[in-house]
Write a structure and sequence with these properties.
This protein is α/β, with parallel strands linked by helices. The two termini are 34 Å apart.
């Protein structure tokens, strides 16, 4: 479904990604794990079109998107939930969700209303707070809102950037349960996450990045048992 081949990304003179390659099959949850500064978010931003690679290619559903503008990538079915949630703080919960449907035709009011109820069914707390300003929500509720907003575009693949950041352990578990449910509902997921244990617990496969280089890849269960991964990322 997604194929990233030999991408090299720079911030000025800094070589942030060095020949990174990975792929995601339809129906999978695939994680990119690694320490801060490993290049995980850079890789995700390059996939979603926010950054450009100097070399290599990125293909989604067989079509190259390496030079495609971000809003057109969303229209193709690839939606990103950014690090830090980035909700529209002064808008209500419902207005934030409606913003997620910006690519859809104004004629599709019935479909948008149906999807709004789908998000509320998935996240009952958002329904309770539908008229509340998003900036007044807790961190966990804002993360639910950010995921719900992305789902309103009806994505084929969801890109999740550090969804557990700043959340309590109970809320982290809740968010990861939500990720599993979204995937079971038919949405493929690419997950960037510093909490390696949680990421590997929900993933089919994973890639380990270190200072912009892909150093390990494999089935999530195998990586959980890998001594190098356990020592470096799992505190074992």
């Amino acid at each position: 479904m997604l194929s990233v081949t030999d991408i090299n990304v720079y911030y000025g003179a800094i070589h942030a990604l060095k020949g990174v390659s990975f792929h995601v099959e339809e129906g999978e949850i695939v994680s990119l794990i690694g320490a801060n500064g490993a290049g995980k978010t850079t890789a995700m931003h390059t996939v979603s079109g926010l950054l450009r690679s100097r070399t290599g290619d990125i293909r989604f559903l067989g079509q190259s998107i390496a030079k495609t503008e971000p809003h057109k990538i969303v229209r193709m079915g690839l939606a990103q939930v950014p690090e830090g949630r980035r909700v529209f703080a002064s808008l209500t919960v419902e207005e934030n969700l409606e913003m997620g449907a910006f690519i859809r035709s104004a004629k599709d009011k019935a479909g948008i209303a149906e999807d709004l109820e789908m998000v509320f069914a998935r996240f009952p707390r958002l329904k309770e707070r539908r008229r509340q300003q998003a900036g007044t929500l807790s961190g966990g509720e804002q993360q639910m809102l950010a995921i719900g907003r992305a789902l309103m575009s009806r994505p084929k693949m969801l890109l999740l950037d550090e969804p557990s950041m700043g959340l309590s352990p109970i809320l982290v578990q809740e968010i990861f349960d939500c990720i599993r449910n979204v995937n079971k509902g038919g949405t493929t997921v690419l997950l960037v996450e510093q909490n390696a244990k949680m990421a590997l617990s929900v993933s089919s496969r994973a890639y380990v990045l270190e200072t912009g280089v892909n150093v390990l890849e494999g089935k999530a269960g195998d990586l959980l048992d890998n001594e190098q991964v356990r020592r470096a990322y799992l505190g074992a």
